[in-house]
Write a structure and sequence with these properties.
Largest sheet: none
Distance between the termini: 23 Å
Order of helices and strands: HHHHHHHH
Number of strands: 0
Helix content: 55-70%
Shape: globular
């Protein structure tokens, strides 16, 4: 809409955000509105697709585990799927923030979700290794195990770098230097999310899943596609250093 001077009126909710235009849609489509609860970020825009995907994935895995007698190994898929659920929330809560106050509160919540998610993932790793040692099993021989190890390491490094960048910027030589690598932290975050989903896909081809859990590959793929369809369109190009 134009004002009486002929100059288009500015929208206070989208002003100054052209550099943060999402990959799909217009500037402001994936932005947290002023005075809006940050919790709404979890379902804003295409986030509802991401929530559908991660909850379907988690529910599928948990249902497959709980319909069988629980054993020590059961904690591995339960903890890993829960970890991915938390990491997904960490991404969704922070993506739409754009004002300084939103970014500050969003970063704290993002860090909390990520910390809990990575702890759940590492607990899943420790338990499966303890289980293998107890049974004399082989370590990191299947595609799932190798990909899983890579994913665990990248998740841990990603979380450590993100936390130190924000809370201990002196490690990088100061705030400005820490900020200069934010975009790489964000990029690698999306990469490690895809790695995590690929690891779950690989898990469906293991002997234990085929013989006991029966989690279907197609179900994991569908849930993963939904998740990525919800997350990726909300990626803010400006935050990745991509010019519009």
């Amino acid at each position: 809409m134009a004002s009486t001077t002929g100059v288009p009126e500015s929208n206070p909710n989208t002003t100054g955000r052209s550099e943060d235009e999402p990959l799909l849609g217009r500037a402001g489509d994936a932005s947290q509105q002023r005075n809006q609860s940050i919790a709404f970020n979890l379902v804003l825009g295409t986030a509802i697709l991401a929530q559908a995907g991660i909850w379907i994935l988690t529910a599928t895995i948990w249902a497959s585990v709980f319909i069988h007698p629980l054993i020590l190994f059961s904690a591995h898929p339960l903890l890993n799927s829960f970890g991915l659920l938390l990491v997904t929330q960490a991404i969704l809560i922070l993506q739409p923030t754009h004002t300084p106050s939103q970014k500050t509160s969003g970063t704290h919540i993002h860090a909390a979700f990520n910390a809990l998610g990575v702890l759940a993932l590492l607990a899943g790793l420790i338990l499966i290794e303890y289980n293998k040692i107890g049974h004399g099993g082989s370590h990191f021989t299947s595609p799932h195990a190798v990909l899983g190890l890579v994913t665990y390491v990248v998740f841990a490094v990603q979380a450590a770098v993100g936390a130190t960048q924000y809370y201990v910027p002196g490690v990088y030589g100061g705030v400005e230097r820490a900020k200069s690598i934010y975009k790489y932290h964000r990029m690698s975050g999306y990469v490690v999310l895809v790695l995590g989903l690929a690891t779950v896909c690989a898990a469906t081809q293991t002997g234990f899943n085929k013989g006991t859990l029966h989690v279907r590959l197609w179900a994991v793929i569908v849930a993963s596609v939904l998740l990525l369809a919800g997350v990726l369109p909300r990626v803010r190009k400006g935050k990745l250093g991509i010019k519009s």
